[in-house]
Design a protein that fits this description.
disordered N terminus, 127 residues, two-stranded antiparallel sheet, alpha+beta, 15% strand, 5 strands
């Protein structure tokens, strides 16, 4: 029991918060945390740019990755129902990216609904 508490404290230590998508530090107001993941504003902005410009040619069909892959922020969106952005084995859906940009970062994006279902690599270099 004591070890579990120590692990939780270490995980929640603000000095050690990292983006689950690029492994960059999340300091102050530079990211959004979910239950078990975090995304820095740089990664959220990159995903928003891809949505706004509809640069989704790298989309992998949901069948190639399995329908069980879900957004790690809302847990409701799957690769078979919407567009997911992925890096380092983590996933975030287009709806959560829009929410983070609009409500947390405060920079709304003019993105249409995602034209495809499946998975788009967020950063090719960290895949």
């Amino acid at each position: 029991m004591v070890r579990v508490i120590a692990d939780v404290r270490r995980h929640m230590d603000p000095r050690n918060l990292r983006c689950s998508f690029c492994d960059g530090r999340i300091e102050g107001n530079t990211g959004t945390l979910g239950a078990s993941v975090g995304i820095c504003h740089g990664c959220a902005n990159r995903a928003a740019e891809l949505l706004a410009r509809s640069e989704l040619e790298g989309t992998a069909p949901a069948a190639s990755v399995g329908a069980e892959v879900r957004c790690e922020f809302c847990y409701t969106s799957t690769a078979s129902s919407t567009l997911l952005f992925s890096a380092r084995g983590r996933f975030v859906c287009a709806k959560c990216i829009k929410l983070i940009r609009n409500e947390v970062i405060g920079q709304p994006i003019s993105a249409r609904d995602a034209p495809a279902n499946g998975i788009v690599p967020l950063w090719a270099a960290v895949q």
